[in-house]
Amino acid sequence: MDLALFLPLLIVLGAFMFFASRKQKKAMQATIDLHESLKIGDRVHTTSGLEATITGVGDDSVDLEIAPGVVTTWMKLAVRDVIEPDDEDEADEDGDDYEYEEDVADDAYDVRLDKDPTRSPKTDS
């Protein structure tokens, strides 16, 4: 009788573990495929949030150019994803899409120079 009580619980637990492990295997395979597809010239994000260009690829490491002339060596595991070229990114780099309004500070903070800040409004008679 005790086995009949625990059998549905064991089946549900076993099914949950099976589907959880399948999801983890798919994610691991996607990461492996990403690391195998890295090539020189790709723009990548690292797990620490750094954007860089690949300048060299080894068995377990990649050389990343993080600034012009600055190349560092990283483990392939630190590469989170490849940055796909996008038309919006190219427009932002040109700086044409950004407009600056000079009077933003004036709108945000009104400075009144004609009144003494130490005097209260009630004493202005």
Automatic annotation (TrEMBL):
Pfam families, A to Z: YajC
Q: What is its main location?
A: membrane
Task: Quote the InterPro entries the UniProt record gives.
Answer: Preprotein_translocase_YajC
Keyword tags: Cell membrane, Membrane, Protein transport, Translocation, Transmembrane, Transmembrane helix, Transport
Basic and acidic residues composition-biased segments: 109-125
Q: Which residues form the signal peptide?
A: none
Instruction: Provide ranges: composition bias, Acidic residues.
Output: 84-108
* Keyword match Cell membrane: yes
Region annotation Disordered: where it falls in the sequence: 82-125
**Topology in membrane:** Single-pass membrane protein
Highest taxon of source? Bacteria
Tell me where it resides. Cell membrane
Family statement drawn from the similarity comment of this UniProt entry? Belongs to the YajC family.
Q: What is this protein called?
A: Preprotein translocase subunit YajC
Q: Which gene encodes it?
A: yajC
